Amino acid sequence: MASLAHIANLSLANDVFASAVTPQKRLFCGGSVELRKLYGEIRRSRRGSCVSTKPDWKLGAGLPRASATEVVDDRGFEQEEKGVGNRRPLKVGLICGGPSAERGISLNSARSVLDHIEGEDLDVLCYYIDADLNAHAISPAQVYSNTPADFDFKLESLAQGFSSLSEFAEHLAAAVDIVFPVIHGRFGEDGGIQDLLEKYNVPFVGTGSHECRQAFDKYDASLELKKLGFETVPNFLVQGAEADISELAEWFAKNCLDPNSGKVVVKPTRAGSSIGVTVAYGVADSLEKANKIIAEGIDDRVVIEIFLEGGSEFTAIVLDVGYGFNSHPVVLLPTEVELQFHGTVDVREKDAIFNYRRKYLPTQQVAYHTPPRYPVDVISNIREGASLLFQQLGLRDFARIDGWFLPSTTHVPHSSDNKFGRTGSGTIIFTDINLISGMEQTSFLFQQASKVGFSHSNILRSIINHAFLRFPDLASHSRVSDHLPRRSKSLQFSGKVNRCEDVRKVFVIFGGDTSERQVSLMSGTNIWLNLQAFDDLEVTPCLLAPSNENLSGVEGSDVSSRVVWTLPYSLVLRHTTEEVLAACKEAIEPNRAALTSLLRNQVMDDLMEGLKKHGWFTGFDIADELPVRFSVEEWIKLAKEVQATVFIAVHGGIGEDGTLQSLLAAAGVPYTGPGVEASKTCMDKVSTSTALNHLANMGVLTINKDVQRKEDLLNMPTFKIWHELTSKLQCETLCVKPARDGCSTGVARLCCQEDLAVYVKALKECLLRIPPNSLSKAHGMIEMPNPPPELLIFEPFIETDEIVVSSKSKNESAHHLMWKGHSRWVEVTVGVVGKLGSMRSLSPSVTVKETGDILSLEEKFQGGTGINLTPPPVSIVRSEALEKSKKCIELIANTLQLEGFSRIDAFMDVDSGEVLVIEVNTVPGMTPSTVLIHQALAEKPPIYPRQFFRTLLDLGSERFM
């Protein structure tokens, strides 16, 4: 059986051979001038000079670190090849985790930093701080674990623990050149990690400990801002058990707030961004919520602030481009945060603030505008004020500063006279200083940086190189890096620079209009960012717009008339497809485009004033480009003209049912994943079962199903439907799911006819989601298909014993799996990779549900939630059974004629290895935290995401050669 590493090597060897024998201009042979011109408008950033198609990685033996001269780490990088000239690569210590509720976001940030700074001149060593402030050295592979629970569970077997933080600091002093802390909240931004590093003279990126402590505490920071002459929000401090209701009532009266209904924001002073923030009404409610924050141990200091209404929040990234200790902060283009409300909602609580969920999870309740839709003088004042704050608070390298803009028509609760922030158009109030801004792939840091010419890699390396300047021994290294950012065409002197014509074109398409479209955006973004790192690829991100955006404007028009937008770098970095689409339309509006270009040029001029003094800065690498709109037909024709391979990341709908595959195949355009017939079969869960029914004696079982029409469900009495289904399927509990839709969407466990009634009502009312715990048994949010499916499948709900990852207690040294094992079935999900007829199974992952009985979309795809045990623990699955199950999975894949890659969800018998098929996903999730990433990393040697996606791309390209 060929290993995935072998598949990867074969694919890349074929690619090198093809590039050697192909004429230099084969990618542009034939085709219309108009299409080539259109493509010229959307070409993605890459190096300006010809490069070898030889990959910059090799699959090694997964050996532990040895000497400095001959090392192969678990990524397979041969370290002796690293370095610039005779200089060794500088070692960056990446520290993530921490004790705050933002640990999951910290892990996502660490993945982004690792993905984008590793290179010939920088080597990254990874470290993790757990919730109890224990430090661990971890492999880069572990950074891709999904959750803090994943980290903690694997630490004992996969990490090197340190006996104390002192020992950890001593190790850092000897092992790394500089530390990049990406711990959000407590211990990361409150001066904790900085104080430790300063005591042991370890260089680090970012602000010093004293300045962090002052800026992190929201109450202390507001006092300092007021002292420095900035407008602030009137507030009241509740500390420990000292709260006095009469003093709070006096504060309400002083600020003209109704003591019974006055609206305020209650938030911990030292809990990081959005954690524990809530809205309260009146004195009693405010004090109750403040005391709750204290009682829950979030913080013992809570600040109560006047709720600002009538304005909007903004956030601004500040980048220091000064030299050494001479600060020269430049504020990038700020982002306006627009809260959106759809339908009838109760805004008294959940929808009143920019909370943690809105900030980090895909939601249509928020939209971002960069630059803000404010008057130019307001944007200028925000940039000026944030720069002054950065300097006067003594911040270093970079930061994110949040605030509010209140138009002049809005009442502003002025705290005192002569404050900075008052303009002719309104008032600017700075409210929060974030010392370590989030660094997820679509974070504000990257959104704003890309608007002014920085790629992910370029902005992160600029931050690190700036930090080097404070340390003479490191500063000399920073000047000799030959790391050159990949430049877009418009920055290459209008294309007049010599360019390689044998660069392969790749279109990554994502979006659509199914309930999985936000996951699709996450997948497509991740694929695009990973593939664009290859010098022999030119990767274009493409948004498949919702069906109501078709060019004819007629509902139900032919698929070929649907709209695809090719996107510039900065417009990809959004949380929702709706936001990407709105940003596309906003970007091509002439007045808006002109203003954005003007402001962008101002910021770039400000940046260059400082950056031109630094030898390490090699230039901006993202062009000021506009999105381009095509019909699907035009887009496919363009792909054909430039001989692009399409990487399909559209989950569900036309991306997974064979429609898009059929259009591409008819045009001769290569694409990733299974072919047309396999896609059609797997999208239809009944057809999938039918195709596999004959494999029962080979260990592959299917679940009995009953298909019901939505119309019948809406018109028949619920009790009658329930009785007929349970009698026919011979079960007491049902699982319902759309007959033709992607994973998790519309899937629910029904325990009684009342549950069925709730589900049918959701279908009838076309609800977008069923709220948590609406059914008789506890469950999380159930995302519903939109529009509701015409056919639904009912099948027996398979009972399995709950698998629990226990938390480590003070008296225990490790985490434990708790599993009764009465039922010998466990739920698994398995990736398959390879060519038609020879698909190979990766290591299965055992799924651990955190809420209810059905994995939610968030648990499956969003970092920070969901647990997958990869590979299955031997305490649950015997090795013989595991090997048998993998053979069964490969049998399923080859019977269904899968190719490229797919994911199979099933139940596994832990004794026999038999599998009971749930469904097959031909366009599985490819977000940074999904199981296929974990399973590729579990290979020996590990296959890292960049290599993994390249393998999948090459498999798609090769089958059309």
UniProtKB/TrEMBL annotation:
Residue ranges of every copy of the ATP-grasp domain listed in the record: 222-465, 892-957
Molecular function via GO: ATP binding; D-alanine-D-alanine ligase activity; metal ion binding
A GO-annotated cellular component: chloroplast
A Pfam family that the UniProt record links to this protein: Dala_Dala_lig_C
GO biological process, one term: cell wall organization
Gene3D superfamilies listed in its UniProt record: 3.40.50.20, ATP-grasp fold, A domain, ATP-grasp fold, B domain
InterPro entries registered for this protein in UniProt: ATP-grasp, ATP_grasp_subdomain_1, D-Ala_lig_Van_CS, Dala_Dala_lig_C, Dala_Dala_lig_N, PreATP-grasp_dom_sf
PROSITE patterns reported for this sequence: ATP_GRASP (PS50975), DALA_DALA_LIGASE_1 (PS00843), DALA_DALA_LIGASE_2 (PS00844)
Keywords: ATP-binding, Cell shape, Cell wall biogenesis/degradation, Ligase, Nucleotide-binding, Peptidoglycan synthesis
Family assignment from sequence similarity: Belongs to the D-alanine--D-alanine ligase family.
Protein name: ATP-grasp domain-containing protein
Protein's organism: Tripterygium wilfordii
